Amino acid sequence: MKIQNKTAWLTRDLKRIFCETLRRNERIEGKRCQYYKRHLLVVVVYARISLNAMARINGAWIKVWMDPEANEFIPELAQIFEHELQHNRGYCHKSMLPWNINNTGYEWAADNKRFPLRKQERN
Ligand SMILES: [Zn+2]
Question: Domain count of the chain?
């Protein structure tokens, strides 16, 4: 997984959240570990309005628009990232399971000791 981070959020914090989401997704959907390690590109930019994302269906490309002010949205970030992973796996909305649409099952991501999301210090 490669992250092109154009925000002040720490790339390693983002990566920890995305990798854990991917790990959990693979427990359900099967491993694509090597494939994603090599090819998955995640582009992270600031949102104008709110957290949002898009992905290539049957691809390995995800773009995430992050709310610059929000700190309480890591479960939502994990949910939206997994939704996009499912698009990468070839799912369209019709064929997605409810857990890809509903915002449940991401309580793990609220643990901000394990999954902090910090901003880079400015000098
Ligand atoms: Zn979608």
Answer: 1
What CATH number does the domain containing 79 carry? 3.30.2010
Q: Which helix (H) or strand (E) holds 3?
A: strand 2-5
Q: For residue 72, is pLDDT > 90? A: no
Strand ranges (E), 50-112: 52-55, 61-66
Domain that holds residue 58: 2-110
Does residue 70 lie within any of the structural domains?
yes
CA of 87 to the centre of ligand 1 (A): 7
Ligand 1: distance of its center to the CA of 26 in Å?
Answer: 18
pLDDT at 114 over 80: yes
